[in-house]
Predict the structure.
Amino acid sequence: MKRLLLKKTVFAASYIFLAILLEIITFLALGFGVLPQYFGLDLAVILIFALIIFVIPNSAAQLSVMFTLIAFQIILSIANEALYSMSGTVFSFSMLNLISEVTGVVDASFLNWWMIAVMVVLFGGSLAGLIIFTRKYTVPKGLYTRNCIVLMLVAFVLAECCAGILYAFTVESFSAAAAQRPEEDRLSIFYDESELYSKQKFTAKAFSEFGTYGYFVVNIGNSISPETYVDEVTEEDIDNYFASGRMSHSVYGDNIYTGAINGKNIVLIVIESGEWYVINKEYTPTLYAMAEGGIAMTDFHARDKTNCSEALSIMGSYPSVTALEPANVIGNSMPYTFPNILDHEGYTNNYFHINYGSYYRRRESFESMYGYDNTYFLEDLTLLPGNTDKKGFYDFDKDSNVFRYYRDEFTQHEDGEPFFTQMMTLISHGSYNDLIDFGNYPYNGVPEAPGETSYDEMTAEEKERFTENCQVKGLEEYYEIIDRFPETYVTGTPGIDQQYLYENELFEEMFLRYKRYQAGIMDLDLGVNMLVNELAETGELDDTVFMFYADHSAYYDQMNYIMKGYDASEFYNTHVYNVPCFIWYGGSMDLNVDALPLREYSQINFTATKDTDSALQGGNKITKYCNTYDILPTLLDLCGYSFNTNLYHGVSMFSKLESLFVSHESGIFQDDIYFSTIDVYVENGSEWACYPFDETYSEGGFGDYVLDFLYRAADYYDKQEMLDAVIKCDYFANHNFFEGNIKFIEKVA
């Protein structure tokens, strides 16, 4: 019996040792120290699993269970390290709701191969060692006597009780500490470990404090039962919340832009993975002319998954929990979305995206809740070449083909009524490795230094092989043109740091990625060129306003960092998230496009003739900080609406106020402060200083400026809790948005 118990103890002890060692490696790789602050939670769960391994009677079964648990921990560690290095967040099981979307866009460039190698060696070495131990240290059959079984069960129960006590004691320790905090402390949401443990609103911080096992035990439960995320809020509470809201017109004061596009056609185009440096005169002359000749928001920031950014522009907020995403509450009444408000004005609302309608469950949400009259997804766009012959996620159709084959549908509307059309582009989506993997079409050579270009021609066979093998098809006509980095950027926007690329021996590699990426934006530019000319021919251009914004930066292959001259670990550097946003209005802004990179381009010499006295004058730059949350308030402002400020998180870009950005990926920031909920990063000149969060609110910390930022961040979460409750209880199913007792929106211009 001693031999049997010794063997079982070795298995259990080996698991405990490996689990803790992997935790140490993970925490060191993440920069969180050696072990979590509340390691007792981690240890308690590890002990429970070890005891389960201990009582399993069969050695093979013990090995299977043990190394399944270890393999699962390794996978989670790899995922957490990759996610944190990329965006400052960690894995949550709620992400599994988007597993099909995630698997389609996985990028290996964010993996820490050294950490993976160490973990694989530990895994393989331990497995081999225990297999050898099992074969040499055999236990005769028949040792499972009644006394042996009773002894094992007694030991199991006692040990489980000890593990349970350790777990409960640890939870009680931070719950008691939370209870001693003053209730009026506005920043308690960021350091209340009890709330952090139960709701895990800040995943990276929760992981750093509770460890892999302590974090995921609760995370799994919250993903299965998301109601725990939202405190119990009654409809009366929501009534009072909205009744206390001020109308935007009274908050902003006088605003010359209010009503500037009242009753006009609106085209809202979301630029997939947009960066300012691909909006240039050399390769995208139409977009460049619209940004230079329109109103460019040069300090605009975005950092969210595409579906979040896209929804924010028409919802003004976004649920804080994946399980409460609009796509999971299909049928809810959302009269506050931009299309639903425009529908009340008689607009025809159209939506285009050359991906399947099931992706992010767009078809259900856009048709049933957001307020679009007509939606066109890949399965609907049968005129697109190759529509029915898709071979994986990266087999994109060209965005320009939407404008080429669906011009009438893009601008469809009732006679005498305006239209609103939103398009989510796709072909500029990463990854950007085609030219690295399959050849620099049409040249084998690449620039070796800034200002240089090599012209070694590909053979006909190489060109044919490239066309057959590359992931993104049909961009060869653009590759024929792109032979160097651009030089003419929109005034005041970030360009490419060619010197940084050269000094770090990245010039050739990043040029090839840039070339693939730039080609995708060129395709969008061609499509916009077609649309502008179509509207000019029909006489509708001077009644149409365009707004462009990027859903997020070009983060694939770490281009958002490297092309701008930043280290890939600088996720706190908010300049990484400075992306395009600009408005062009045909009623008051001229448009001159004279560079013609392709035969299909049309030269444009458009002179505005209608609203020359409009507040929307061309060539302006909005240099204040703004972000994705501000798009809907800005559009409502331009359309002449005053709205209840408790409805939305953002503010009009034309107001003097600034909002802050709370990313659903990770981080809370404005242009010179980044708060990870673990540390606060503050820009000082060209450098970023990192401080532990505790210092920001303690006496002698950063002062009023940063404290004000943190207070506004706390206010965001207070508002978010109410807006989550609005969705959860389908509040507007029973409340009149346009004419109810509570004022939500009104036309002021």
